[in-house]
Amino acid sequence: MKIQKHNLAGAFGAINEYWSPTIVTELNGQAVKIAKVKGDFVMHHHENEDEFFYVVKGQLSIELENQTIQLGPGECVTIPKGVNHRPFAETE
């Protein structure tokens, strides 16, 4: 088994489209993805997995049915499977 390190700054630099997640690695059968975001995404939920959001740079808002969560650099939140959510960001 070959263990690899990952350069997240380089991986972010290679992303050219917003809301287009890129798989960096896998952990316990789950994909670890990164993405650049700007603008609105659709309200949605995931049937089989939780979704983890961690902000590296900028601001991210996540609209839920009864609240909006705002995240800044270094902040994170896990949205449980089955919970409707809509992420959006005014700037990249």
Characteristic key phrases:
4-stranded antiparallel sheet; mainly beta; two-stranded antiparallel ribbon; 92 residues; 1 helix
Describe this entry's structure for a reader.
It contains 1 helix and 8 strands; from the N terminus they run H-E-E-E-E-E-E-E-E. The mean pLDDT is about 95. The longest helix has 6 residues, at about 10-15. It starts with 7 loop residues before the first helix and ends with a strand. The chain is mainly beta. Strands 3-8-5-6 form a 4-stranded antiparallel beta sheet, with no helix packed on it. Strands 1-2 form a two-stranded antiparallel ribbon. Strands 4-7 form a two-stranded antiparallel ribbon.
Number of strands: 8
Main structural class? mainly beta
Mean pLDDT: 95
Main sheet?
A: 4 strands, antiparallel
What count of helical segments does DSSP give?
A: 1
